[in-house]
Design a protein that fits this description.
The protein is mainly α. Helices cover 60% and strands 4% of the residues. It holds the Pfam family Post_transc_reg.
Length: 97
């Protein structure tokens, strides 16, 4: 089998993704979505290898550690905008002042 772009495997590796998400839930991380997990894998795990074999994709999904994903999620949340600049944040600040 030839190497293919990673996005072409997404449908084929759904059982592995589902299994990993269930593992996260068991460990208390219910808020992790399939989209967030796939985004992590594409931007961090497969950043330098745009084409892989399907067994490499499955291996990477199943060997993913919760801590690695949570480190990524934490950094991404810090990259997000300032919460106090959002409408919700401004309303809260007005209520406190």
């Amino acid at each position: 089998m030839n190497k293919q772009p990673i996005d072409e495997f997404r449908h084929h590796v759904k059982p592995a993704i589902k299994s990993k998400l269930e593992e996260f839930m068991i460990l208390g991380y219910e808020d992790v979505s399939e989209e967030k997990l796939w985004s992590f894998l594409k931007t961090k795990k497969w950043k330098k290898t745009p084409e892989l074999y399907v067994h490499e994709v499955v291996r990477d999904i199943l060997s993913l550690k919760v801590g690695d994903f949570m480190n990524y999620a934490t950094v991404e949340s810090f990259k997000g905008g300032n919460w106090f600049e959002s409408d919700e944040g401004k309303d809260l600040l007005k209520g406190l002042i």
